[in-house]
Design goal:
Largest sheet: 2 strands, antiparallel
CATH class of the domain at 16-71: Mainly Alpha
Number of strands: 2
Strand order of the largest sheet: 1-2
Number of helices: 3
CATH architecture of the domain at 16-71: Orthogonal Bundle
Strand content: 5-15%
Distance between the termini: 52 Å
CATH topology of the domain at 16-71: Arc Repressor Mutant, subunit A
Shape: globular
Radius of gyration: 17 Å
Helix content: 25-40%
Structural class: alpha+beta
Length: about 90
């Protein structure tokens, strides 16, 4: 992880990113190399989530915290399918 002091706090929050962006950040964290569009890299760099050094993509501290937010799961109740239960009548 590379420290990020170049970017100011941005309004982009973890829940604002789509599934593709989330998967991309998790892949970068795991060291998976993916081919992506240059405009996508520019956008993620603009959000302060990644930096490109020596043609390699690295997560910033902000990008790492986004990945941690994606890896935390909300608790589910035993026997729950993830959907809310109906109240008893």
């Amino acid at each position: 992880m590379i420290e990020n002091s170049l970017f100011e706090p941005l309004s982009v929050q973890p829940e604002d990113l789509g599934a593709f962006e989330k998967k991309f950040l998790r892949d970068v964290a795991e060291g998976v190399v993916r081919a992506v569009d240059a405009s996508f890299i520019d956008r993620m760099t603009g959000y302060g989530l990644i930096v490109v050094r020596n043609r390699h993509i690295h997560l910033t501290q902000r990008g790492q915290s986004f990945c941690e937010a994606y890896s935390t799961r909300r608790p589910t109740f035993a026997g729950s399918s993830g959907k809310g239960s109906k109240p008893l009548r």
